[in-house]
């Protein structure tokens, strides 16, 4: 995972036209306006050609992996059949991988760990964001300043002390060790605080006058009003956790606790020359998130765009 | 934490009274995050700094304080500097295409040509693959005898390339893999920015009879200046942290010619068991990241003025 911890966006300049909060039309990713290229037939044809080339270059590796996964091992390692199989397609690769049984286990681990990380992160970040946005308490300003500064701390710096800490707590090779450190995402607190700042307060004030406490206001008014932003943050956190490699790799050595990204690479070491099998396991491992993406394309695209830029 | 129930319904309704209560409800709301933050970020940072001043190892012997010895050793450690060099080189050769290709892709898709769904899926799907899958796939693509790319080169009459085992090629091959894998993220950021450009600029230009290229050069690209700055900052920070794909594709080889500084930390700490020294190198890396962020943000601010 590369773009995991994101830096604070610099203070928004007065004149900066791009991208303005709330300026996106309707669904942020409807078909773009044609205004940037009304142009001639030739320009359009050139643009279409360029797009097709890019798409082909980007899809070819996936297509080839897919083809390999349906080949027999003999065809997969035969240079004469580098593209199309000589002896037809087969499900042998998939069958072997599934029968070995560890892939479903790693998927389950990834699902469990990513879900736990997402639930905890979204809940504590939303509560903290609400506290920083709506309440007064001693130290609020500097605690928020420290949180914002911490956005710059790379996970990579913390690996060694986390490992020591988990050894000391006796948590190495437990789910807790993998999950807990991943739930600290100052960026999400920052994003949600800024979001709450932009939510109108009238409803909350009315509820307060009716005697509702902070928890009630937070749970029954603020959270439901913020559903789209919470969804965006949750999707982003989930993808980040699902694809996280370094910490799950360092904190688990027991294959029964491995996540998908970690476990799948151990297949390579054990069955390095079985290309069809290797690609079959890669295809299976890729499947869940790609399927989810196809179902929720618009939400995911929007989540990445808003969260990736620090909650615009 | 023996925190009382978060924010009980106040008997006296007014906010000022609530704000004066101790512990105030606000603090209780922030508490779960602050506890996790203190335990898994602040404390590890302090502990890492302390470890970097000791000779702690993973073996049993008790650590002793060694002052700045680890840092002195790091500054004179040719292997560390070499790994820092690889990280910086990787950051340069990955950031430039990751920004430019994303921009071109977004401009092309934003033209509103048919097939929107296909383009977005094609460019963004790789970003959704776990790094383990990406590395398995690219080890296969780069395979010298059977891999797709050498097949294609051969069919063009060219010699195959030892993608991951040639010292002068490996880091470029890793950058190429990274481009394929993560460009979709920047592509989406650019696409969002393009879609929020104000229409009236284009309407005015259309009335003035400006052609497509003219509008691209005079309106679109200048308007994208700021977002390009943001994406570049994000990308540099992401690239400086590179470890996963390098470790999985080459394990830092051949002959350590691709090992980034984060992998050096991992090797020293978890293979060499020298946690103290690994912590010191972590802090050198941290300094590098902070330096890069501050430099970029300063440059950014100056340009905005």
From TrEMBL, chain A:
SUPFAM superfamilies: MetI-like. The chain crosses the membrane at residues 45-67, 106-130, 142-163, 175-192, 275-296. Keywords: Cell membrane, Membrane, Transmembrane, Transmembrane helix, Transport. It holds the Pfam family BPD_transp_1. Residues 1-27 are annotated as: Disordered. One of its GO terms (cellular component) is plasma membrane. It is found in: Cell membrane. Its main location: membrane. It is a multi-pass membrane protein. Belongs to the binding-protein-dependent transport system permease family. This is Sugar ABC transporter permease.
UniProtKB/TrEMBL annotation, chain B:
GO terms for biological process: transmembrane transport. GO terms for cellular component: plasma membrane. It holds the Pfam family BPD_transp_1. Residues 84-296 form the ABC transmembrane type-1 domain. It comes from the Bacteria. Keywords: Cell membrane, Membrane, Transmembrane, Transmembrane helix, Transport. PROSITE patterns: ABC_TM1. It is a multi-pass membrane protein. It is found in: Cell membrane. The chain crosses the membrane at residues 27-46, 88-109, 121-141, 169-192, 224-243, 280-300. Its main location: membrane. InterPro entries: ABC_transporter_permease (IPR051393), MetI-like (IPR000515), MetI-like_sf (IPR035906). Belongs to the binding-protein-dependent transport system permease family. This is Sugar ABC transporter permease.
């Amino acid at each position: 995972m590369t773009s995991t911890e994101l830096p604070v966006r610099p203070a928004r300049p007065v004149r900066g036209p791009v991208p303005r909060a709330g300026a996106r039309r309707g669904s942020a990713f409807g078909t773009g306006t044609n205004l940037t290229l009304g142009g001639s037939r030739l320009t359009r044809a050139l643009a279409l050609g360029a797009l097709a080339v890019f798409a082909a270059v980007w899809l070819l590796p996936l297509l080839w992996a897919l083809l390999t996964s349906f080949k027999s091992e003999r065809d997969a390692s035969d240079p004469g059949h580098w593209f199309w199989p000589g002896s037809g397609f087969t499900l042998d690769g998939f069958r072997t991988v599934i029968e070995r049984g560890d892939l479903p286990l790693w998927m389950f681990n990834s699902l469990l760990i990513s879900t736990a990380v997402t639930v905890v992160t979204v809940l504590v970040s939303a509560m903290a964001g609400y506290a920083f946005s709506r309440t007064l308490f001693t130290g609020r300003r500097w605690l928020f300043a420290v949180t914002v500064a911490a956005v710059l701390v790379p996970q990579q710096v913390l690996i060694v002390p986390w490992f020591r800490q988990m050894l000391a707590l006796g948590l190495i090779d437990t789910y807790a060790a993998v999950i807990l450190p991943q739930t600290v995402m100052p960026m999400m607190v920052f994003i949600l605080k800024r979001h709450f700042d932009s939510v109108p307060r009238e409803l909350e004030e009315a509820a307060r006058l009716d005697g509702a406490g902070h928890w009630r206001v937070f749970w029954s008014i603020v959270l439901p009003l913020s559903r789209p932003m919470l969804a965006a943050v949750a999707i982003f956190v989930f993808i980040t956790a699902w694809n996280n490699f370094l910490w799950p790799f360092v904190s688990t050595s027991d294959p029964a606790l491995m996540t998908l990204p970690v476990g799948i690479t151990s297949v390579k070491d054990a069955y390095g020359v079985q290309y069809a099998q290797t690609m079959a396991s890669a295809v299976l491992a890729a499947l869940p998130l790609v399927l989810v993406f196809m179902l929720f394309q618009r939400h995911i695209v929007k989540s990445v765009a808003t969260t990736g830029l620090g909650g615009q | 934490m023996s925190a009382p129930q978060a924010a009980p319904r106040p008997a006296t309704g007014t906010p000022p009274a609530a704000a004066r209560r101790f512990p105030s409800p606000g603090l209780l709301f922030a508490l779960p995050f602050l506890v996790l933050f203190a335990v898994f970020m602040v404390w590890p940072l302090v502990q890492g700094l302390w470890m970097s001043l000791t000779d702690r190892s993973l073996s049993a012997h008790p650590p002793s304080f060694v002052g700045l010895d680890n840092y002195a050793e790091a500054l004179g450690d040719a292997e560390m500097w070499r790994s820092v060099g690889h990280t910086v080189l990787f950051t340069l050769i990955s950031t430039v295409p990751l920004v430019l290709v994303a921009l071109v892709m977004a401009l092309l898709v934003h033209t509103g040509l048919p097939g929107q769904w296909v383009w977005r899926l094609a460019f963004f799907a790789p970003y959704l693959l776990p790094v383990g899958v990406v590395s398995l796939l690219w080890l296969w693509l780069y395979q010298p005898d059977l891999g797709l790319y050498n097949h294609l080169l051969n069919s063009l009459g060219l010699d195959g390339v030892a993608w991951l085992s040639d010292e002068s090629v490996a880091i470029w091959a890793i950058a190429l893999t990274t481009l394929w894998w993560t460009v979709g993220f920047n592509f989406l950021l650019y696409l969002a920015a393009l879609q929020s450009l104000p229409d009236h600029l284009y309407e005015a230009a259309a009335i003035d009879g400006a052609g497509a290229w003219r509008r691209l050069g005079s309106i679109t690209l200048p308007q994208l200046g700021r977002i390009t700055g943001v994406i570049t900052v994000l990308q540099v920070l992401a690239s400086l942290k590179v470890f996963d794909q390098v470790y999985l594709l080459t394990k830092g080889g051949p002959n350590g010619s691709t090992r980034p500084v984060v992998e050096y930390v991992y090797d020293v700490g978890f293979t060499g068991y020298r946690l103290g020294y690994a912590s010191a190198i972590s802090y050198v890396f941290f300094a590098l990241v902070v330096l890069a962020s501050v430099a970029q943000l300063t440059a950014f601010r100056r340009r905005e003025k």
